[in-house]
Design brief:
Radius of gyration: 20 Å
Largest sheet: 2 strands, antiparallel
Number of strands: 4
Distance between the termini: 71 Å
Number of helices: 6
Helix content: 40-55%
Length: 171
Amino acid sequence: MWRHLRSNYALYKVKAPERAERLIRRDLLDIVNSYATSKYGDHTEWKRLTRAFPLLGGYFSAPKGELKVKTSAHCECTISAHMFQKFQKANPKVFEIGTSKRPCFLCQKYIEFLVGDIDLTSSMRFIISGYQGKVRIGWKPPDGPPNALSGIIRFLEHEVDKILDTVAHKP
């Protein structure tokens, strides 16, 4: 009986992403103000930031210094980018990606931006077992199509804009 069953699934080997150690700034206020200066020429203060976001209130000042972080592209993004580049002109265009852990929030966004270009991928979809919704420190995008990377950059800029807007409108 088993000899007669056929599978539509194929297994592909994808090179694992390289991990790199990086120093990142711990000072959220400095990061927000660097962006604000480049875009608006405006600054905010720690007191205003903690008033707008009370969960930061446990700190009397912004954490200083740098933090050593190991960065890497997560496997589901690497696999998605590989499958996108390999099969964007082929059929079928629905791919299931299985991982032992649910992908993080930035992986979810990356995959959404990867297939977001209607002209190239009108029928391409990635089926993932769900998302955990957490932002993981050390996340970096894989080598992949520029539309996905530019989508992530626009998304992150929009998130920092929302932070600045919240700070500006909080009394």
